[in-house]
Write a structure and sequence with these properties.
Layout lengths: L1 H5 L1 H46 L7 H24 L13 H22 L24 H20 L4 E6 L19 E12 L1 H11 L6 E11 L23 E2 L5 E2 L24 H5 L5 E12 L9
Helix pairs in contact: 4-5, 5-6
């Protein structure tokens, strides 16, 4: 203590120097920490930049122009698609009066029934093109527009089915639309078409099923997408041997037998009369039609779940 009192200036100078040294050490350590952090960040950024430079679309003028061209080509392709499917996009669906829709429904049902009757096919009892709920009540005023559009598509499908000449339309199911339930249907921002579902079950030959499936893609005014196809044989069990229907043998040709074929024949010249001969065996008929009489006559039962697409108005595409 006596030394500090005797050397106050030196003691104060030493204390200040010590504090300054400690401060410098602290600042140096803190600065080095910030430097290390900055250096690590630089290294990470440099590595990321190097990775970006190796990407195909690194933002160079050449890549920028190439990407713009690709976007313009894509926009043109989408525009062409919208133009191609534009014929399936109906004009704005305006609601008609409920009585007018009922008149359209009755006329379409009469036309379809006549077509099925002409082809020899049968319809389910009480069938009304899937609109059975409107046989005795009128449709709602806010649903007649979309219902009339769907009716036109169902009519074309049923006329195509009648032309394919099936044996029987087993079922035609049309799920109720949102408008029929008192709801409002609203398209999603990226939606380009509305799906109007339909289920058809019919029975017929393989040829009739093939022709109808082919005709679905050839409708003039409507675009239909098949979602589910199930085809089953009318018979669940394989054919049995007893199912074969053999051809009857032909009637025997006229012979020279006497007395009803009792074994006595008119002898040819030079042979003794009354000679007895063995009766000829019954002819064996082999027409090669055995398999065709057992196999291939069954009809098929076809179930289809499909969507009638109501294409929405074309969207304005952004410029790249």
């Amino acid at each position: 203590m006596s030394w500090i009192k005797d050397n106050q200036f030196i003691a104060v100078l030493g204390g200040v120097t010590l504090v300054g040294a400690l401060a410098l050490i602290f600042v140096g350590l803190n600065g080095r920490s910030r430097y290390n952090a900055a250096f690590d960040s630089y290294q990470n950024s440099a590595a990321a930049a190097s990775g970006f430079e190796r990407l195909p679309l690194y933002p160079t003028p050449t890549n920028r122009d190439g990407k713009r061209k690709a976007l313009l080509d894509y926009r043109e392709a989408v525009t062409d698609l919208q133009t191609t499917f534009g014929k399936f996009s109906p004009a704005e669906l305006t609601n008609i009066s409920p009585q007018e829709f009922t008149n359209h429904l009755k006329a379409a049902n009469t036309e379809v029934r006549a077509a099925f009757e002409k082809s020899g096919a049968t319809l389910p009892d009480g069938s009304f093109l899937g609109f059975e709920s409107y046989t005795d009540v009128l449709a709602g005023e806010k649903s007649t527009g979309v219902l009339d559009y769907q009716l036109g598509a169902v009519r074309e499908l049923m006329l195509a089915l009648a032309k394919a000449a099936p044996t029987q339309l087993i079922n035609l199911h049309r799920p109720r639309l949102a408008e029929e339930r008192g709801e409002v249907w609203k398209a999603e921002p990226k939606e380009v078409a509305r799906e109007l579902p339909l289920e058809i079950t019919f029975k017929g030959s393989e040829k009739s099923a093939r022709e109808f499936l082919s005709s679905i893609s050839k409708l003039d005014n409507y675009y239909v997408v098949l979602r589910t196809v199930r085809i089953g044989n009318e018979k669940a069990t394989p054919p049995l041997a007893g199912d074969a229907k053999f051809d009857a043998p032909p009637a025997p040709a006229a012979s020279n037998e006497l007395f009803g074929g009792a074994g006595f024949v008119v002898p040819p010249d030079g042979e003794a009369a009354g000679a007895e001969s063995a009766p000829a065996p019954a002819p064996v008929v082999d027409t090669g039609r055995v398999l065709s009489q057992v196999l291939g006559n069954e009809e098929v039962v076809v179930f289809l779940r499909l969507d009638i697409l109501q294409f929405l108005p074309a969207k304005e595409l952004p410029q790249p």
